[in-house]
Amino acid sequence: MSEVYYCENCGGVMEFDVASQALKCPHCGSVREIQTDGRKVEEHRLTGYAKREIRAEEKQSTTMQCPSCGATVEVEATSTAKECPYCGTAFVLAEKQLSNIVPDGVLPFKIDKNRVGEIFRRWMKGRWLAPGELKHLYQKDKLQGIYIPYWTFDADASADYAAEGGKNHPIRVRNAKGEEETRMEIRWQPTRGRVSQFFDDVLVHASDRLDDQLIQAIEPFHTKEIPPYSPDYLSGYSSEIYTVDLEDAHRTARTQMEKELYALAEQDVLRRYDHVRNVRLNAVYRNETYKHVLLPVYATSYHYKRRQYTVLINGETGRIQGEYPKSPAKIALIVLIIAVFIGAFFFLTSDRGGRRYGYDEPVYTEAEYEQIEEG
Questions:
Q1: What is the rounded CA–CA span in Å between residue 126 and residue 311?
Q2: Model confidence at 367, in pLDDT bands (50, 70, 90)?
Q3: Domain layout of the chain by residue ranges
Q4: Is the preceding omega at residue 220 within 30 degrees of 0, hence cis?
Q5: 79, 84, 106, 99: which is closest to 4 by C-alpha?
Q6: Percent of the chain with pLDDT over 70
């Protein structure tokens, strides 16, 4: 069923309020604490069965009835929270959460729309390569708060490695002029070792609707003390269902872990050697667990000259990242300024520039030239 949180005082629809971290009525200001069942966020054992069974379903959009005004509303396949376009009522699609796995935790929004609007405007003003008219495209109503699904993974990891370590050895050689000089030679030798690391909450984006590189640029999110899931947090915001299978997400997490183990192996070799190359790992992962969480993101898109650009803002920290067009005129001006500076530099360091600023070559008499040649 679809849930609407009505105010017990005035009957208005309550929404999650960032300042109080509770449900709040926008009409009379009544506040109600978030309802949870008292459980703690649970880490689930990562088993072969879980990876086989927890898969994103291919779903089509759903037609639902607004519980407030009765209007028929089209709901996207991945949405679990919606605002009615007719009456503005925010409602949570509880049955869509239950048809998948219920999230283990929700990191609530910590930045409200007024503050995030300021962050966006400040960011836009700082894009000095953007066309001037772009700074007037900001529209507050297009800045949408969305809970994005993520998988997190924990693991005790260790890796035996083999590599080559190089030490610097000075050697004496003769150069092209026949003179002796010292050069550094690297002498390589095989080395082995072992590194280990506990990985806690490796984040993997579980939705394919937003660009991975863009959303990774606004990370991190602080998920260590994440509150347990409650649909109350979703009231007034949009929310998505995961579209990335647990198995695929786990593969991505392993890749992230292996990169860190590789870096640790390099650091271990460099404690004994001056250089490192050809690192090879044999990694083992134990006590692997996972959980499914929702994390807060503000998103907006705008069009400029028939192309769409997306900007994302971390709803917890305010970190912002986005795409924007570059003005050809401004780029040409920068290139021109750089060319002028380079030209001025060469002019001032040339013979002509030197003479202009009082560094003329000395003028000698014939007798002085003869003395110089004899000397």
A1: 14
A2: low
A3: 331-374
A4: yes
A5: 84
A6: 71
What is the C-alpha separation between 150 and 199, in angstroms, rounded? 16
Instruction: Name the token pair of 128.
Output: 């000095």
> Average pLDDT in the 265-292 region?
96
Residues whose CB is less than 8 angstroms from the CB of residue 238 and which lie 6 or more positions away in sequence, other chains included = 79, 81, 82, 83, 144, 145, 146, 147
Please report the pLDDT score of residue 333 as a whole number.
Answer: 62
Instruction: Indicate if the pLDDT at residue 299 is higher than 80.
Output: yes
Residue 283 near residue 276, CB atoms below 8 Å: no
Distance CA 219, CA 221 (A): 6
Question: What is the distance between the alpha carbons of residues 59 and 248, in angstroms, rounded to a whole number?
Answer: 19
What residue type is assigned to position 304 of the chain?
A: Y
Alpha helices in the chain (DSSP H): 48-53, 94-98, 113-125, 212-216, 246-270, 328-349, 351-356, 366-374
Q: Kind of pairing, strands 105-106 and 275-304?
A: parallel
AA identity, residue 211:
D
User: Beta-carbon neighbour count of residue 230 at 10 Å?
Assistant: 19
d(CA 254, CA 262): 12
Least confident piece of the model among 66-70, 100-104, 155-159, 228-232: 66-70
User: What are the helix and strand counts (H, E) for the chain?
Assistant: 8, 16
278 — alpha (psi -120 to 50), left (phi > 0) or beta? left
Exposure class string for 132-171: b at 16+ Cβ within 10 A, else e: eebeebbeeeebebbbbbbbbbbbebbbebebbbbeeeee
Q: Which residue has the higher pLDDT, 117 or 135?
A: 117
**Token output for 288:** 């692997």
Whether residue 178 is predicted with pLDDT greater than 70 in this model: the reply is: yes
Q: What single-letter amino acid sits at 164?
A: E
Please report, in angstroms and rounded to a whole number, the separation of the first and last CA atoms in the chain: 105
Amino acid at 111: I
Cα 111–Cα 112–Cα 113 angle in degrees, nearest 5: 125
Please compute the mean of the pLDDT values over residues 106-116 and round it to a whole number: 91
d(CA 238, CA 14): 15
